[in-house]
Amino acid sequence: MEMKLKNKITKCLFPAAGYGTRFLPVTKAIPKEMLPVLTKPLLQYGVEEAIKAGCGTMAIVTGRGKRAIEDHFDRSYELENQIDGTSKEILMQGIRDIVANYTFSYTRQVEMKGLGHAILTGQILIGDEPFAVILADDLCDNVHNDTVLTQMTKLYEKYPDKCIVAIEEIPEEDTNKYGVIAGTLLEENLYSVTNMLEKPEPQDAPSNLAIIGRYILTPEIFDVIKDTKPGKGGEIQITDALLTLAKQGKVLAYKFDGVRFDCGSIDGFVKATNYFYEKVSNE
Hints:
alpha/beta; Spore Coat Polysaccharide Biosynthesis Protein SpsA, Chain A; five-stranded mixed beta barrel; two-stranded antiparallel ribbon; 10 helices; 13 strands; 31% helix; disordered N terminus
């Protein structure tokens, strides 16, 4: 099937079906994507980043026990009526504007079979067009430049036939926690990917350039994922699917400008909270 290509990204996919076991017991009842950094849940930070990058449609792949996500991105008439005209009303303005002006669609990932499978599950929401992917666990910020996803969408306008992954340098001993790339430098901070490995041991890693939770994918990825066999951990890895396209010269890796916090870990979550507290305090 011939895929349509365009150089504008208007949809962002959010895989949000995971269990969040590193944050038990709180994630027994609260989706990990709804854990708050200050007064906003992680997923709202991701949605705001997608909006700044020009996305008008948020496609969210959820699972059992994730109703709080849908409730958050919806009107709350009783609460809004209760705080109408009070000093608390201003606190709701941001999420009100998001709900009023952007589209949210949902589908469920019935089985947890890896990130590749989660992205494939979202095909029904994305259709036949290029799209962004944000993993809410990876909370990114940039004080002096565009958001990470905006940086990537600008690159996609220049390279509209390529998938793009965001990368950062990590300590070599941490390669077994990430997808890791090797590539040739195409321009400043941009690599043409030649190899990708999912969570390699340090001695097997092709570099210390790790993929983080920001992607721009062409619709071709869906057919590739369907043909990708389970890999590390018995799951369908997006890294393995992207490697197929990388061998065809269709994947770029971008060393982004900004800071990133792994909010899937307690350590990263605390660092993010401290960082954003300091940022708000200094505004």
